[in-house]
Input
Amino acid sequence: MIERAEDLLPLPPATFHILLALVDEERHGYAVIQDVEARTGGELRMSAGTLYRSIARMVEQGLITEVARRRSLADDERRRYYRLTPFGTAVARAEMRRLSQLVRLARARGLTPESA
Output
């Protein structure tokens, strides 16, 4: 079993985006897909296959967990909701630190994003 957040780094982009989608609330799979697409301005469109393979791996790794209850009786009972675990939060923060350091190193070498 993985004990340190750093042991999972670097994260696949899909994994990091799923973690970001779950930071502020529990979501079902399709809501995660919508959140990622909205947050990236449509630049990243996650397929259902990618999402559910990633979710299965992330549950196994202890990053997220399935929520046992539905939000409301009107909610489709087939929907499975997921939430971030404390370990998942630690991994997301570790990846954020890693990416921030990478950007700092690039800037220190004079690399900057070109303005549009």
Q: What stands out?
A: Helices lie at 13-22, 29-39, 48-61, 86-108.
